[in-house]
Design brief:
Radius of gyration: 12 Å
Number of helices: 1
Order of helices and strands: EEEH
Strand content: 15-25%
Helix content: 25-40%
Strand order of the largest sheet: 1-2-3
Number of strands: 3
């Protein structure tokens, strides 16, 4: 698994008591975990699956526009 260049938003869900990670540039791409690190690890896998599915279905893949640094 490689680290993506997409922006990841990490938030706490008080109701479910989990961290939720979303990728705004990839519609519907989200994951969760009981810890911050678990949510971040899960979202990297979700990004890979999102990109693979998009390629298989002929869906255009947005360029990562977020500034990382």
């Amino acid at each position: 698994m490689t680290e993506s260049k997409y922006e990841i938003i990490l938030s706490w869900d008080e109701t479910d008591q989990i961290y939720v990670a979303t990728v705004p540039e990839l519609p519907g791409c989200m994951a969760h975990g009981e810890t911050r690190s678990a949510a971040l690890k899960a979202i990297e896998g979700a990004i890979e699956l999102w990109l693979k599915s998009a390629a298989e279905d002929g869906i255009p893949v947005p360029e990562a526009t977020s500034v990382v640094g």
